[in-house]
Design goal:
61% of the residues lie in helices and 0% in strands. The protein is mainly α. The protein starts with a helix and ends in a 7-residue tail after the last helix.
């Protein structure tokens, strides 16, 4: 009985692949966050909102802030990556998107091992996460 328990504790190839990709993506995203933060705080990249004006926005709601600072909503931040206070979004995108890449990567392994149900579930997860990230389904914000 001990042998059966130990055998079931071993990670499957797709679990190892998923974990390795997740680890690498996390490291890349974390490094990106540090690099872009230093680009911002060292003044290498000019911020969209000057640091001395930040306190003017602290008491505003999100919608008031976006309107008064003339910041686009949704994917509009992509056009603002030239500013130091928006470049850090790249690290956030990597950290939040790495899960999608992990699911995509394990689908061939799941199909090869005959786990068609899990492969379909992984593809459904990719579709759902991609749809959510796209901004197509907007609810309340």
């Amino acid at each position: 009985m001990t042998e059966d328990n130990n055998a079931s504790l071993e990670a499957t190839p797709e679990q190892v692949l998923y974990a390795n990709l997740l680890n690498k993506g996390m490291l890349i995203g974390l490094i990106m966050l540090f690099v872009t933060f230093f680009l911002y705080i060292l003044g290498i990249m000019k911020p969209y909102i000057p640091i001395e004006e930040l306190s003017n926005y602290w008491g505003l709601s999100v919608s008031e802030y976006l309107k008064s600072a003339d910041i686009p909503t949704g994917w509009g931040w992509v056009n603002m990556l030239g500013f130091g206070d928006f470049i850090n979004f790249l690290g956030i995108v990597i950290l939040s998107g790495v899960t999608i890449l992990c699911y995509i990567a394990i689908v061939p392994t799941l199909l090869k091992s005959g786990d068609k149900v899990y492969a379909v579930l992984a593809m459904a997860e990719v579709a759902i996460l991609s749809l959510a990230a796209s901004g197509v389904l907007v609810a309340g914000h």
